[in-house]
Design a protein that fits this description.
By secondary structure, the protein is an alpha/beta fold. About 35% of the residues lie in helices and about 15% in strands.
Length: about 210
C-alpha cells in the first residue's frame, strides 16, 4: 500500500492515506497508455472531411482542344487536377476513425497512468472538496493552496459548485471515477482527487 499525504483545502497536512497498489502502484505499461491515448484522440475525430475528385467537380464535359497540332500538352478535361477549379487528387472522403482496444487494456492503461502520477508526486489527495457557492476565485485559491497547476480535479460524485467554479480556470478540468480517462490523466500536470473519490477509483479499477 502506497502511503500518500492527505491535505485539506487550506493546503495543510492532516494525515496520510493508504492507496491500493492494485490501482496506484500497478506496473506501468507505456504501450497500453499510448494505445489508449491514440484511441481516444482518434475516436474524437468527426471524420466528416470531404473534397471533390475530378469526377465530382461540375463542368469540363468537352475536351478543351484537339489532341494534336496545337503546341499545347494534351488535355482531356478542364476539371483535371492541374487546372484551376479542377478536382483534388486522392480527395479525402468521410470515414470512421474509430479504434478499439479491449476493456482490460483500457483499465490497465488507466492504472498505469495513475501510478505514474503517484511516482512523480503529481497526485494530491484532499480530505474534502466542498465549496459553499459557485466561485471561480475560491476554486483557484484552493488549487493554489495545494500547489496544483493545470489540474484534473476528481470528485466522488458530480459536484455542481466544483464543476462550475473550475470550468473558467485555464487548464483545469473536473471528472468523476466513472468519467476519468487515460488522456485526461496524462495531459494534466497535477491530479487532485478527494479521499472518497480515491476509494471509489480503487473499487472500480482494482
Amino acid at each position: 500500500m502506497a502511503s500518500v499525504t492527505l491535505y485539506n483545502m487550506e493546503g495543510n497536512e492532516v494525515g496520510t492515506v493508504e492507496l491500493s497498489d492494485a490501482v496506484f502502484g500497478a506496473p506501468i505499461n507505456e504501450h497500453l497508455v499510448h494505445l489508449a491515448v491514440v484511441r481516444q484522440l482518434a475516436n474524437k475525430r468527426q471524420g466528416t472531411q470531404k473534397a471533390k475528385t475530378r469526377s465530382e467537380v461540375s463542368g469540363g464535359g468537352r475536351k478543351p482542344w484537339r489532341q494534336k497540332g496545337t503546341g499545347h500538352a494534351r488535355q482531356g478535361s478542364t476539371r483535371a487536377p492541374q487546372w484551376t477549379g479542377g478536382g483534388v487528387v486522392f480527395a479525402p472522403v468521410p470515414r470512421d476513425y474509430e479504434m478499439k482496444i479491449n476493456k482490460k487494456e483500457r483499465r490497465a492503461a488507466l492504472r498505469s497512468a495513475l501510478t505514474s502520477k503517484v511516482q512523480d508526486n503529481k497526485l494530491v489527495v484532499v480530505d474534502n472538496l466542498a465549496l459553499a457557492e459557485v466561485k471561480t476565485k475560491e476554486m483557484q485559491r484552493v488549487l493554489n493552496n495545494l500547489n496544483a497547476e493545470k489540474a484534473l480535479v476528481i470528485t466522488a460524485d458530480v459536484d455542481r459548485n466544483v464543476v462550475l467554479s473550475a470550468r473558467n480556470i485555464q487548464g483545469v478540468e473536473t471528472a468523476t471515477p466513472g468519467t476519468m480517462n487515460v488522456y485526461d490523466v496524462m495531459k494534466h500536470k497535477t491530479i487532485v482527487v478527494t479521499k472518497d473519490a480515491a476509494a471509489s477509483i480503487e473499487e472500480v479499477y482494482a
